[in-house]
Amino acid sequence: DGGITQSPKYLFRKEGQNVTLSCEQNLNHDAMYWYRQDPGQGLRLIYYSQIVNDFQKGDIAEGYSVSREKKESFPLTVTSAQKNPTAFYLCASGRWDRLNYGYTFGSGTRLTVV
Amino acid sequence: AQTVTQSQPEMSVQEAETVTLSCTYDTSESDYYLFWYKQPPSRQMILVIRQEAYKQQNATENRFSVNFQKAAKSFSLKISDSQLGDAAMYFCAYRSPGAGSYQLTFGKGTKLSVIP
Question: Which among B91, B102, B105 has CB closest to A94?
């Protein structure tokens, strides 16, 4: 079955460390997205990519970086510059034809700073 | 920038009753897409229903229906015959139509509790 796989499910980071969250999809979707979810804040867009080797900053990109070397993969790195990284991170891919449109989400990664 | 507002942080409904979740949005576009997503305790985001703004007919999916009021920029979700499995966070989302503008803007969510 097609879908999006995020790993790991839980991740612990020490102060000053960079960590990378994985997101892989086999839906053949061109567009991929990273969102951050905090209690009472909804989902906020970190980065998105519409094609391979291209990506754009979202509303809260500071302290994060991404790459899109393959259509199937869109990893997110949380750098030490991100001052408050503890949150739930959701990856999504998008299909936007008239007959079938919307996001498919991964199951998320819970990142905790220890 | 578009904004999406869900004015009810929490709501509750008796099992088998009907509940309506509110959503308003701000846009200057005439054609766009609107969505409701459900996030149960597992935190998996699930698409509930979607609507294209150019369609005047309100979307329905089984027990879920929307009341789309374009002039008022309102997109409420009605859940009929509420079930215990409907307990979740519900997020309203907007997408503008322009090329390259594929990202969704989400509201802050409404937490729905279902009382047995």
Answer: B102
Gyration radius (Cα) of chain A, Å? 14
DSSP B49-88: EEEETT--SPPEETTEEEEEETTTTEEEEEE-S--GGG-E
Q: Where are the beta strands (DSSP E) in chain A?
A: 4-7, 10-13, 19-25, 31-38, 42-51, 54-57, 64-66, 76-78, 87-97, 100-105, 109-113
Judged by CB atoms closer than 8 Å, whether chains meet at B102 and A45 is answered as no
pLDDT in tens, B12-52: 999 999 999 999 999 988 888 999 999 999 999 999 999 98
Chain B residue numbers with beta carbons less than 8 Å from the beta carbon of A60 are none
In Å, how far is A90's CA from the nearest CA of chain B? 9
Q: What is the mean pLDDT of residues B59-75?
A: 95
Q: Which residues on adjacent β-strands are paired with residue A26?
A: none
- Tell me the pLDDT tens digit for each residue of A68-102: 999 999 999 999 888 899 999 999 998 777 666 78
Are the beta carbons of A31 and B9 separated by less than 8 Å? Answer: no
